[in-house]
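Sorry, explain these tokens?

___
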Amino acid sequence: MNKKTIKAKFKLVLIKISGNIISAVIFTLAAVMTVYVYAAFQEPSVGPASSDQDFTQNILGANDGNNDFDSSAVVANTDGSIIERQQYLEDQIFEICGGGIPTVLIGSQTWMQYNMNVGTQLANGNTAPSNDSIIEKWCPAPTGTAGTVDNLQYAANCTTDGGLYQWAEAMALPNTCNSTTCVGSVNTPHQGICPSGFHIPTDVELDTLDRYLATGTCNAARSNAWDCDPAGTKLKVGGTSGFEGLLAGFRDTDGSFNNRGVYTFLWSSTESGTSAWRRDLYSGYSTVYRYAGAKAYGFSVRCLKN
């Protein structure tokens, strides 16, 4: 694999509430669904009055019993070791709290409730991903935004709607996979840009979702067709499934942006020749669209728990 494995990172914020009680609040990277996880810590009463740095060091295990910085408790240099310990603490809370990722159980599947938003934002729609060592994305822009327009001004839309990714980026595969088949590089399940324990859904897994929510016909083999009423309504924001499908629109192959607030397009990990299967939701329809299209589009990514 040529791309970095992306792990969902969480920011640990230490907030002093009152007296000696401290709360750790974990915020998810995606602001769409913010999860608060509280873990109370007791600040040591021994030793001199603790500064914020002293207390942080204590939480990270770098202070001794007298609340003095203990150099033997860290490795290498002070700053580097504190960062490592803080990341360790974040990871431990992340695991203890079941991942801290907003999810919803739909049938037998556990889905994230927000679109992925990781990677480096590209300058504009005409700028295609080119660095296989990182993940690159666009942020949703208003309908009709040309490929030459600065995309960086729409960074806030990535926070609310998630990023837009070409198929190879979503899969964390080389960019050449957008124009050729890379079936030999696709795992089952395939993590792609999803955090540890989650993966890019297959076409079959998306069909399972469609069928569970449909009350009418739901043809798994449909192509370039809408079906599975009323799954589309249930999957959109405010729908009864809790999936909260955001209508983020897409980045077209000509570099322009369209349909924000009207459509959403979700990648699957399943190829169809040099194309890949996807699902679409439309604000005016109660059904779900299935189609195998060009991998060079910029679509949203929704992850499924392993």
User: Anything to note?
Assistant: The chain is about 20% helix and 20% strand. The chain has two domains: 11-96, 103-305. The first strand starts at residue 11 and ends at 18. The longest helix spans residues 78-96.
